[in-house]
Write a structure and sequence with these properties.
single chain; mainly alpha; Multidrug-efflux Transporter Regulator, Chain: A, Domain 2
């Protein structure tokens, strides 16, 4: 293996580590899939996420999420007995990349 190849592999490993650190839901999903004894039908896109998690996924701050609620790009959901707004993961993922600063197609 060449030194350049080793550097590239190390950089990819560091990016993967950062992704897994910043997205605990991804780690939980992978662990569930690994430990499943039978195939699972997981409707991950129907899961509700808090504003902070939605902001992390999109790489924005919570204030941006609030602005997107006000302008209708995101619809908040409230669960019984909890005043925290949550968002469907599918709706978060559907935010066009043009709307997210620093992200492009």
């Amino acid at each position: 293996m060449k030194l350049d190849d080793l550097d590239e592999a190390l950089e990819k490993a560091q990016r993967l580590r950062a992704l897994l650190t910043d997205t605990p839901a991804l780690v939980a999903f992978a662990e569930a899939m690994h430990s499943a004894r039978e195939p699972l039908l997981i409707l991950e896109e129907d899961r509700l996420v808090r504003a902070g998690e939605a902001a992390k996924i999109l790489g924005v701050n919570a204030n941006t999420i609030g602005m997107w609620v006000k302008d209708g790009r995101l619809t908040p959901w409230y669960t019984p007995g909890n005043s925290q707004r949550k968002f469907k993961l599918s709706e978060v993922w559907a935010i066009p990349r043009q709307c997210v600063p620093g992200k492009s197609n």
